[in-house]
Structure formats: structure tokens, C-alpha cells
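Q: What would this chain look like folded?
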Amino acid sequence: MLSRRTLLTGSAAALLAPHAAVAADKSEIYMDLQGRALKGYDSVAYHVQRKPMKGNPALSMEWKGAKWLFSTPANLVRFRSEPERWAPQYGGYCAWAVAKGWARPINPTIFRIFDDKLYLNLNMEIHRRWLKKRHTFIAEANEQWPGILVQG
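A: My prediction, written as C-alpha cells:
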């Protein structure tokens, strides 16, 4: 028979599961539960179309263990030829969190392009905070990355 403590612990674990998975996996690329980078959004579209666009599963490829989806055949070709150019900074983890030393998920609709690089954040509050001191946070994140992936 399950104790109340076991049930409560299990419930808490279920609530924290999305964040725990990120902390436990710490893969080089942030992936959703389906193994998709950017939660299925097209990484090239942020640069070319200047907006987040959901990718099409029929237009996909695998890179660095993640499935990358694209909204147009041209975006797939672009990514295939230069994935480092089009991939988000810090493997698609929240840029503000990486600056703080944490690997945290993102909201794929909250982004900014600086110096032709894609940065994503967890939510609008974090994004506004990140924008105010983006140069400092980018420098801090560059120092942290990818070391945070191997921390216990």
C-alpha cells in the first residue's frame, strides 16, 4: 500500500517533471519530450522570416541528437548546409538561465536575434530582464556554456 508521503512525493515529481527532465538529461540541445529542438519550431525562420514559425514534421532532419523541423524546404536546405549558423545559442536553453548557470527550457515564441544569433528565453518577464542587460548576460552565458551541462 502506498503511503501518503509516497503519493505526495510522486505528485511533486510529476509537477516538476518537465524541469527535472531538463536538469537530468542536460543534453547539448534542449529537446521536448518528442525529441524536437525548439519544441518543433523552425530555427531558420527566426532569422529569415523574422518570426517564430512551427516546423512541418515532413521537413525535418536530425542534428546533435535532436529532431529539427522546418516550415519551408528552403529553410531545411539552409540549416542542412550550415547548422551552427542557424541553431540557437546555448543549445536552445533559456539564455538568461544559462548566464546564471542553469539549463532551463524556453518558450519558442520569446526570442531575439543579436549579431545574427538566436537567443531564446523562458518567459516575457525573464526576456525583459535579459534585454536590459543583454550584453552582460551574453558574456556571462558564454563563460558558463557548455560547462553547465556537466555539473551535477
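The first strand starts at residue 56 and ends at 63.
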